[in-house]
Amino acid sequence: MFTVATLACTHVEAWGDRGHQVTALIAYRHLTPRARTALDTLLRSDGDTLTPPDFASRATWADRYRGAHRETAAWHFVDIEIDHPDLAQACFDFPALREAQPASAGPAQDCVVNKIDEFTAELGSAVTAPAERLLALKFLIHFIGDIHQPLHAADHHDRGGNCIGLALPHGQAANLHGYWDVDVVAALGPTPLEIADKLDARLTRQEKDSWAKGTASSWAMESFELGRRDVYALPSRPTCALGGSVVLSQEYAAQAQRDAATQLLKAAIRMAAVLNEALLVRLAVASP
């Protein structure tokens, strides 16, 4: 399990910039016209310079923000131990916000499941302050991507794969977590737009309707099961205490690419569904 103290010196990114941009690019295409207009209006009101102002770039904002705000580090994952899965334990027993406390000021010991729920509620609420609504949007679109990276939901006493070295070179990755963040996505295409085009073109109506359902908790458990089944299908399972490295086979790499493609697409469809509902609820409340 990660701890907040450990995260202070551990580099953790789900999908890297390219993966988050892919999910946002696809999600934007599946917004309703009214939700897209509401989103564009929100984005135009944001003067933050941590990332460029476009939607795909804002999907990477939470990683930039975390650099100077380590209290948000644990919000990016919910590491459920594969030997003894306990979602509540992995999420610090789902801490509640204090009365009138904004989600962006929530406790450091919290998880991606709780934060998705909290920021979704804020985005759709009529009483959320404008500055907090922008934060809610930027955290939310990043965290929905994070929760679909299997190593942000599954753990084996290895800091989400950060303690598992790779015995042979795999692109930029030095460890298993980095492999799933960056190299698997890079194998899907040369640019975020080309990956988004390819994945969106393969989407079926049945998949879209099915994947748009569920909750942050169910998405986390789905990612966990994928992690337990495929990500940890390794020749050995090093831990932070024992150390060690693994060799990834061609079969492993091929399965990882299939899994990553599906998870990115699911994240995009679910992001669009959440934004369609939250932004339209907000519009309905704001209308006279």
What does this structure look like?
With 288 residues, the chain is mainly alpha-helical. The protein has one domain: P1 Nuclease (Orthogonal Bundle), CATH 1.10.575.10. It is built from 13 helices and 5 strands. The protein has a 3-stranded mixed sheet. Strands 1-2 form a two-stranded parallel sheet. The longest helix has 37 residues. The chain is globular, with a radius of gyration of 18 Å.
User: Architecture, according to CATH?
Assistant: Orthogonal Bundle
CATH topology: P1 Nuclease
Cα-atom radius of gyration: 18 Å
Domain count:
1
Runs with pLDDT <50, length 5+? 1-11
One letter per element, helices H and strands E, the order comes to HHHHHEHHHEEEHHHHEH
What is the helical fraction, as a range of percent?
Answer: 40-55%
SSE topology sketch:
Blueprint: H1 4-7, H2 16-29, H3 33-44, H4 55-58, H5 61-68, E1 80-81, H6 87-90, H7 112-124, H8 130-146, E2 154-155, E3 165-170, E4 173-175, H9 176-186, H10 192-202, H11 205-211, H12 216-231, E5 245-246, H13 250-286
Parallel strand pairs: 1-2, 3-5
Antiparallel strand pairs: 3-4
Short description:
With about 290 residues, the protein is mainly α. The chain has 13 helices and 5 strands.
Descriptors:
288 residues; mainly alpha; P1 Nuclease; two-stranded parallel ribbon; globular; disordered N terminus
